[in-house]
Amino acid sequence: MLPHRAMMARGMSAIPYDIRRSARARRLSARVHRDGRVEIVAPRLLPLWVISDFVDRHRLWIEQRVSEACARHVPQPFPPLCLELPALERRWSLTTVVTTGGDVRLLERSAETLELHHPLEADLTILAHTLREWLRDVIRQPFEQRLSTLALQHGYRYERMQLRWQRSRWGSCSRRGVISLNGCAAFQSSAVLDYLMIHELAHTRYMNHSKQYWAEVARCAANWHTLDAELRQGWQRVPAWIFRR
Known about the structure:
By secondary structure, the chain is an alpha/beta fold. It contains six helices and eleven strands. It has two domains: about 70 residues, no CATH class; about 160 residues, Zincin-like, CATH 3.30.2010.10. Strand 5 and strand 6 form a beta hairpin.
């Protein structure tokens, strides 16, 4: 959730930045996304003036990263022409159909073909929400089945799985054994998805990142270093419209 938007002075213009409050955050941090969007993560109760001062002190660094991101960024068409989920080895072509009225609807015409029906002036945020909800339904069962299979294979127990759309976390595991997975993992390879699930399953035994924890991960995924590095770069494979709000 992005409850507040502010502006950072930049000569005669300004750079907007989002402030995301997090209960987990213990300090301020700045993140420049690949499309040039600036996000400041802040502890939940930190005053706005402290955040503003932090942004001002790091203004030059933020400006440089924004310029670099914008230089690399290639705008993606929206709605997209296709939806591809490497983790599930599935791909759909997407056709948009402009209607004279009515609600936004996503129709499956075949196993590989989708139609997105919407009015001419439809809010792009609503279109993105419709696609995300459809994706959630598509990936939930395969994710649950794969997590269950890996848990059985490696001797883990967990309470249940839940799906989220998150900007900075791939997954988490609560002390009750509830495993949360980011739906964006569907845009990664199947091997990386398996690694993510093993990473969280290992937390059912070690709620930390100690040597014992990583030894447990290595027991199930000997090449975890390579997969972890690939996962860290995985945001580059997530389409920007996923986070359109």
